[in-house]
Specification:
The complex is a heterodimer of chains A (409) and B (139). Chain A is an alpha+beta fold and 409 residues long. Chain A has 9 helices and 10 strands. Helix content of chain A is 39%, strand content 13%. The longest helix of chain A has 32 residues. The radius of gyration of chain A is 28 Å and the shape is elongated. The chains are: A alpha+beta (409), B mainly alpha (139).
């Protein structure tokens, strides 16, 4: 049986594929990956409590914006990456200069760097997209792996830009040749791939629509259009006025008391402990311990603050929280002004049952141990009997079902 | 050269973090890293070529640009919706997650793309004829 022939780079003759298209899409891809990387670093910052510089407590909507931008810039990159990969796909079949050692090594090094870049880029977008919908079809730890591969992806991207800079410069500095005359006499198989047709004109001579398929500029605009549509279709997660049109948003924004939830009381294993009438909150500072009930909490000065709950998965919701100022609780055990705190939850299952909160957040006047949400007692899924809510902080660290607050030395 | 060095440094930091993940995590992550490339290069890319080849024969020349634009938007945006269409992340204890009918949403999205494709032809002709008229009256 005859083996089907492996195509060569020259077999792909679409006049749309050229350096200018690759560079144009590459620029937008670079912008979205850059934004995604930086906002990802901001999010990772919150998980590093020992850094000398901590995330700021203002603006209150900071994390809502950066994490929304993180997920949406990743989604924006998906159509761009697919078109970009299409535009450079023939390079996969480029000739390998066997025989001469130096060109062979250079060629293999470039192929390896591209392989790393493509693998890391696809990996980041696939894992990030799946994670934003609560889907974990892998066994590795998401956060540390997504973080490590983010550095690999951005490093490989920077190397790629450095290597391709001469080509990018050339692609933009050379004027596009005059459009070729209409190739009426030659039958054309298809508008994009054309593996059968002869190359009709110079590869760049395609900026004018010729009536037989999209121009290269149209393809770039199409990629940007697809990218924008993908963002709008998902953005209702965090942009309220887009909720109606965001047909692919992971959440409608509905939920108990008008706010979605991430971990339910059932998932946390607190269905009985959270509603136990004997519930007590314990405050600990060294060997001093104070225990108070929910009724005691209700008897303290109540404050109402508008604070968004913004999740690492990219969704967010504005809400009105009523409760006790966190600093007032700390004063009950004379916690030092600069002490950070450990907040424990009744939660038995899943991560973040215990979180640390630095003094800047704990002492912020807006930070509450909330008892009510949007005017009513917290529902059990929102953290009844009491939960932490602080400005500009990832939702996963807004501990629910709080039963113990410890002052750290 | 400087940019390249910065890139290598950033990538090396990532590689170092990656190698600290532990054997099980590394093995599984490498599988996913390679899997993404294989799925694209062996399935998605050849499938795209096949679709463009077939579409190129079926679609008459004047409509090719519109159809190509529509197919690119439809296909790439649908890729971003795979996790919600599959609903693999849905949890019975959390009704606030994946709480839309994403299939209906996809049909609406496809209908909008189709409508846009159908309208793009007549609208384009109208615009061109207007431009001609304007240039004639100006001349």
């Amino acid at each position: 049986m005859k083996r089907p022939p492996v195509p060569t780079e020259a077999a792909f003759t679409s006049r749309l594929r050229n350096e200018r298209l690759s560079a144009g899409i590459g620029m937008w891809l670079g912008v979205s990956f850059g934004l995604c990387f930086l906002t990802g670093l901001v999010s990772h910052w919150y998980y590093l409590p020992d850094l000398p510089v901590l995330p700021p407590v203002r603006p209150v909507w900071g994390y809502q914006v950066t994490q929304g931008a993180h997920v949406l810039s990743g989604i924006a990159a998906i159509p761009l990456l697919l078109v970009k990969l299409w535009s450079v796909y023939p390079k996969l079949f480029g000739e390998i200069p066997f025989g001469k050692l130096r060109p062979l090594l250079v060629n293999l090094a470039e192929k390896a760097s591209i392989a790393v870049l493509v693998a890391a880029a696809i990996f980041q977008l696939v894992t990030g997209l799946a994670n934003s919908s609560g889907w974990y079809p892998w066994s590795f730890s998401f956060r540390s792996t997504h973080y490590a591969v983010a550095w690999i992806a951005i490093g490989a991207l920077v190397v790629h830009i450095a290597v391709k800079l001469p080509i990018i410069r050339a692609a933009y500095s050379e004027p596009l040749p005059e459009p070729a005359p209409e190739p009426l006499a030659v039958p054309v198989a298809d508008p994009l791939a054309e593996p059968l047709a002869e190359p009709l004109a110079g590869p760049a001579a395609t900026d004018q629509p010729s009536g037989r398929g999209p121009s290269r500029r149209t393809l770039l605009r199409t990629a940007l259009l697809a990218s924008s549509v993908a963002v709008i279709a998902a953005a209702g997660n965090t942009v309220p006025f887009l909720r109606k049109v965001s047909v692919f948003a992971v959440r409608t924004g509905e939920g108990p008391q008008g706010v979605p939830i991430n971990r339910s009381a059932k998932a946390a294993g607190v269905l009985t402990t959270a509603v136990d009438p004997a519930f007590e909150l314990t405050l600990v500072n060294g060997d001093r311990e104070v225990t108070i009930t929910r009724a005691d909490l209700e008897a303290m000065t109540q404050r109402v603050h508008q604070l968004p709950i913004a999740c690492v998965e990219g969704w967010s919701a504005a809400a009105s929280w009523t409760g006790v100022r966190f600093a007032d609780l700390l004063d009950l055990v004379d916690a030092p002004e600069n002490a950070s705190l450990r907040v424990r939850s009744l939660q038995e299952k899943g991560a973040f049952g215990v979180t640390e909160i630095p003094a800047s957040f704990a002492r912020d006047p807006l930070t509450l141990l909330a008892l009510k949400l949007n005017g009513d007692d917290l529902s059990i899924d929102h953290g009844f009997p009491c939960r932490l809510i602080a400005p500009n902080r990832p939702g996963v660290m807004q501990t629910k079902w709080v039963n113990r607050i410890e002052v750290l030395a | 050269m400087l940019i390249g060095t910065v890139g290598v440094a950033m990538g090396s930091f990532g590689a170092l973090r990656f190698l600290q993940l532990g054997f099980g995590d590394i093995l599984n992550a490498v599988l996913w890293l390679a899997g993404g490339v294989v799925v694209h290069d062996v399935i998605i890319a050849p499938l795209t070529l096949l679709v463009t080849l077939v579409a190129g024969r079926l679609v008459p020349a004047p409509a090719r640009t519109r159809v190509a634009v529509a197919l690119v938007v439809l296909a790439t945006v649908t890729v971003t919706a795979i996790p919600v269409l599959g609903r693999w992340g849905a949890r019975p204890d959390n009704p606030t997650l994946l709480d839309r009918n994403y299939f209906i949403g996809w049909l609406l999205f496809a209908a909008v793309v189709l409508l846009g494709t159908l309208l793009a032809g007549p609208l384009g002709r109208l615009r061109r004829s207007r431009q001609v008229r304007v240039s004639q009256s100006a001349g």
